[in-house]
Amino acid sequence: MRRAGGVPHRVAYDVRCLSPSSDRLSGLSLVIPAHNESENLRWLLPHVNDVLPRIAQRFNVIIVDDGSTDGTGALAESLARELAMDLRVVRHEHKSGYGAAVGNGLRAADLEFTAFTDADGQLDVADLALLVPLLKEADLVGGWRMTREDPPFRSVVSGVFNRLVLMTFRIPVRDVNCALKIIRTEMLRRFDLRSRSALINAELYWKVQEQGSRYAQVGVPHHPRRMGRRSGGRLIPILRAMKELAEIRFRGSAPPRN
Questions:
Q1: Single pTM value for the model
Q2: Domains contained in the chain, number
Q3: CB-CB contact of 144 with 7 (8 Å)
Q4: pLDDT tens-digit profile of 159-216?
Q5: How far apart are CA 73 and CA 6, in angstroms?
Q6: Maximum Cα–Cα distance for the chain, whole Å?
Q7: Which helix (H) or strand (E) holds 61?
Q8: 222 lies in a domain?
Q9: Residue 130: which CATH number?
Q10: 157 within a domain of the structure (yes/no)
Q11: Under a CB-based contact definition with an 8 Å cutoff, are residues 217 and 173 in contact?
């Protein structure tokens, strides 16, 4: 089942109102790529620790420190100890790119379901609860941003990129780059992810589609960045994603790397 257009607006709610036993996932690994996000992690990780028990019976967190110079990885480990949170840090010595960070985090996931979101807080981890019901009918569920809290230039670039991706991969999704997704980990192990840029979002949808499997989307709120400096929307990452678009599409799917 592929849901792109026609998806009803879903209203976000306080995840604390959910019953702890209502439709929780058996296990969830949450991947958070982070480059110089120490300011945001100070509020984000306590928030994650508060809401994920309402979404999954068991959970762990994988922070991918993508060449940070502000102590992001060390701070994440320190906060995890204070919170008694099951957290691992995957470290990149140098900045390797968004797709490389997300991909390495996804490969490190070890529970039944795997989710990822960004460390900037523009998408609320609590809204993973909006995605969970659709997993009854789909192997991959992503959000689509009902509003956009980005500068105009970034919104225009994102819109153009979305259209190009939809035409190239023929994936009928409403918002390919929304970084709030859950996938069955067993499905994730069926294919290899090659992208080192933001194209990894499109690659996920396309490779699930190539497996003959199902994906769906649901509307989620989008929030202004609280702290730190955004790194997306610059020319070099955009050009890198465009180059990968052609390479990945025409190289085709491949079995996972060992």
A1: 0.83
A2: 1
A3: yes
A4: 677 777 777 888 889 888 899 999 999 999 999 999 998 889 999 999 999 999 999 9
A5: 41
A6: 47
A7: strand 59-66
A8: yes
A9: 3.90.550.10
A10: yes
A11: yes
